[in-house]
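Service request form, structural biology core

Requester: graduate student, group of Dr. S.
Request type: structure prediction, single chain
Budget code: on file
Notes: please return the result as structure tokens.

Sequence provided:
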Amino acid sequence: MGITNGFIGTYASENSRGVYRFTFDTDSGALGQPELFYEAGDAKWVSLYKNTMAVPVAKDKAAGTCLLDISEGKAKVLGEVLGETHTPCYILQDETYVYTANYHEGLVMIYEKRFGEKDALCPVKKIAIAPLAGCHQILFHGPLMLVPCLTQNRILYFDRKRNFEKAGELLFPEKSGPRHGIFNRTHSRFWVVGEWSNEVYSFAVREDRFQLLEAFPLLKKEAGAAAAVRLSGDERFLYISLRRTNQIAVLYVGGERMELVERVSSQGEHPRDFILSEDGQFLLAVNRNRGGLVSMKRDLKSGKIVKITGQAEIPEGVSVILEEI
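Core staff response, request fulfilled:
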């Protein structure tokens, strides 16, 4: 397939300066050394939609979101809104809107893209849930927008067809900390990772009804470990990053019950986000404290990680994404 670009969002520090770009060989899994692509404080999450990139930014004791045009291989600012105290921890885009979740302030911001205007990022909706609600992700399920609220042990639903009115909630056990979730393609199954309980919750889904099937323990009682979750293209394996143990857990989810396949080293310290390549051949993980960006070869049949194919230094890495080929 050839060489493609990837991007890494980083926490603000003396050694990290914003969003970094790297190259990824889709045939061998080799990585190019990341270079600064867009300088911004606390640009920890990277969202791509076609030729637009959305990232958090912090400036002059204010924080918010920036929309960039990257069509010519460099970052051109289209719009920027600094209406928050802390930067959002998650950003999602579609054709029309940019959606952000703010962990510390407990709110969701929705911006309309208005291309051609002086400022192409216009706030249209602010959903204030509660301070420190731990809003950690945004997912879509039909007309619903789902927001995991980690510290409230619940996922809230908002109806996109009714101006994002609250439409319900999915409750979790106390001290579970629902952080990130993922649907299968038909949205008949839903998996959620609990950061505090280090469990994966599996649900059967029918319209807006969620039936808990299983709560699978990833670790014993280590606190605050589980982070990101991804589903393989064939929908047989889940991958979950475990920060405290510096591992990636592999679960088989193609049967009636989840099964642990293996837990492998993230090749660094404090793995945060990770992704699977489009063809499923590779897993790319970013370690925040040590180890940087790592690419790993997957065995498509067993789901196991079979070898390390590349590693590149990057400080304070939080999120990673690849451009579509």
